[in-house]
């Protein structure tokens, strides 16, 4: 029965706006995560139907012990829709539901007749159609193996290279913009893949790979980099890989539970240069000696998440906000926090590059935050400006919205992704660089020589990669239904992919 209490707890926190479906499930103990995720997702799909059924049967009126609405939802879901029924011993709560099962089944049939459907599956909430067009993205964790080794492993499992524009099941392609990123058919599942379990494959949306790629941290022993809001850890592990496990990468996460998730992710990915800190980045003192050599900072603060179309939040019932006032107030509050964290990062004395990103499509969280940051005292005093397009994924076509930043050049300097159009979730990336960083000593430039070479290689990817040809092949060429109500495996796997 504890399993049902755990699932009900997730639903409680969702109702209290204390997290997203994805985030709350990711914070669950790993041994219970898959099972709980399946029940939470399936219950949310049928939530309105289950609530209507429970109300019509007057379950709460007759069974006072069922004083938790969400506990009743998950128990009734399994009683009516799961093939195995309620998976618990014959305790009082289970019996409280089963006493009314016949009547609730009758109410469920009446709902189907009223809605003109014949199966339980037709009662489920439907997903955002835009999510169906997003490939399954898998980043090859180069801390553990190479792209060639990954491709050889895939081919040994029966995968073959395909066309990135029309991937079929059991096909893969190299991404055209991000090195070491592979694309698969959207329904490809990796939950039971040995390479995924070993941390060799990281499930990470393409747009989520943009910030670390743009930051392009140095890969030498004296490098010091900060990931200011690190959980769940995908971007952090990517930074560590780009640094080749060298130098020091400080990963901040203030929330205790999310910090636990971060630690698990970093251990799984094998990030030898990363120090995870259960602390609020905003409380750090930029003048502290520990941060004296911090040169690169990644900022991916809390945002509205309006660009994420595969996060399962479509399952949540929309609030009544007909005039948009509540949403506007929420966005303004988020933007204030986002600006605060950018301005704080600009105070670090040795910082020369800051990347700011959100998974939002709203201008107030994106271009307007960038505009305000550039107009801040911190930017003026330290000489922070926007990095030009040539250093911010130059081959990516979608750029910032015009008319907000200073000029067209500034708009071209930032990156946007549009859900449903760019085969990614919605995203925004801006890169600030310090004017003084262009006047570094020759010794600093020499330290970054290996890293600069890597950046050149990354830029070359967009111009040379054949999405339908595997990296291994390129290298060789160069040398010469009662509804079962079962949640799909790809939905559960997708919980950790952003």
What does this structure look like?
This protein has 498 residues and is of the alpha/beta class. The protein folds into 2 domains: 2-125, N-utilizing Substance Protein B Homolog, Chain A, CATH 1.10.940; 134-498, Vaccinia Virus protein VP39 (Rossmann fold, 3-Layer(aba) Sandwich), CATH 3.40.50. It is built from 21 helices and 13 strands. The chain has helices spanning 2-15, 21-26, 30-45, 47-56, 59-62, 69-80, 92-98, 101-115, 147-156, 194-197, 210-215, 234-242, 256-269, 325-345, 367-374, 377-382, 408-413, 442-447, 449-464, 471-479, 489-493; strands at 136-140, 160-161, 171-174, 181-184, 201-203, 224-227, 248-252, 274-277, 296-299, 353-358, 384-386, 415-417, 427-434. The strands form 2 sheets. Strands 6, 7, 8, 9, 10, 11, 12 and 13 form an 8-stranded mixed beta sheet that branches. Strands 2-3-4-1-5 form a 5-stranded mixed beta sheet. A hairpin with a 6-residue loop joins strand 3 (171-174) and strand 4 (181-184). Helix 1 (2-15) packs across helix 3. It is globular. The relative contact order is 0.13.
């Amino acid at each position: 029965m504890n399993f049902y209490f755990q699932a009900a707890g997730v639903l409680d926190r969702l109702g209290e706006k204390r997290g997203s479906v994805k985030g709350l499930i990711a914070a669950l103990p790993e041994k219970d995560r898959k099972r709980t995720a399946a029940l939470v997702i399936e219950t949310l799909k049928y939530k309105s139907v289950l609530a209507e059924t429970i109300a019509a049967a007057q379950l709460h009126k007759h069974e006072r012990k069922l004083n938790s609405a969400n506990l009743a939802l998950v128990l009734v879901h399994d009683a009516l829709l799961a093939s195995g029924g309620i998976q618990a011993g014959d305790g009082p709560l289970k019996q409280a539901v089963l006493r009314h099962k016949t009547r609730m089944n009758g109410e469920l049939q009446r709902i189907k007749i009223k809605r003109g459907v014949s199966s339980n599956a037709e009662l489920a909430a439907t997903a955002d159609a835009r999510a169906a067009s997003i490939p399954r993205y898998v980043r090859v964790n180069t801390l553990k193996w190479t792209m060639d080794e990954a491709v050889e492993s895939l081919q040994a499992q029966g995968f073959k290279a395909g066309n990135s524009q029309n991937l079929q099941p059991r096909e893969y392609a190299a991404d055209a913009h991000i090195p070491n990123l592979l694309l698969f058919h959207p329904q490809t599942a990796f939950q039971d893949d040995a390479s995924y379990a070993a941390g060799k494959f990281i499930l990470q949306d393409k747009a989520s790979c943009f910030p670390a790629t743009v930051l392009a941290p140095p890969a030498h022993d004296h490098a010091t980099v900060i990931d200011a809001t690190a959980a769940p850890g995908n971007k952090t592990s990517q930074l560590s890989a780009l640094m080749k496990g060298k130098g020091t990468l400080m990963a901040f996460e203030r929330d205790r539970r999310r910090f636990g998730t971060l630690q698990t992710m970093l251990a799984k990915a094998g990030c030898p240069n990363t120090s995870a800190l259960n602390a609020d980045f905003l409380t750090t003192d930029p003048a502290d000696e520990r941060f004296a050599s911090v040169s690169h900072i990644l900022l991916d603060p809390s945002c509205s998440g309006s660009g994420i179309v595969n996060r399962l939040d479509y399952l949540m019932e929309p609030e009544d906000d007909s005039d948009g006032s509540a949403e506007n107030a929420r966005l303004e509050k988020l933007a204030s926090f986002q600006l605060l964290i950018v301005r704080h990062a600009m105070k670090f004395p040795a910082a020369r590059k800051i990347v700011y990103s959100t998974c939002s499509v709203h201008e107030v969280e994106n271009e307007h935050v960038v505009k305000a940051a550039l107009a801040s005292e911190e930017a003026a005093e330290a000489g922070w400006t926007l990095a030009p397009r040539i250093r911010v994924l130059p081959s990516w076509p979608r750029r910032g919205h015009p008319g907000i930043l200073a000029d067209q050049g500034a708009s071209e300097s930032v990156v946007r992704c549009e859900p449903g159009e760019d085969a990614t979730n919605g995203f925004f990336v801006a890169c600030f660089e310090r004017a003084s960083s262009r006047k570094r000593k020759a010794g600093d430039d020499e330290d970054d020589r290996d890293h600069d070479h890597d950046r050149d290689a990354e830029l070359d990817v967009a111009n040379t990669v054949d999405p339908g040809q595997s990296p291994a092949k390129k290298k060789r060429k160069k040398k010469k239904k009662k509804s079962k109500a079962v949640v799909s495996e790809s939905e559960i796997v997708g919980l950790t992919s952003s």
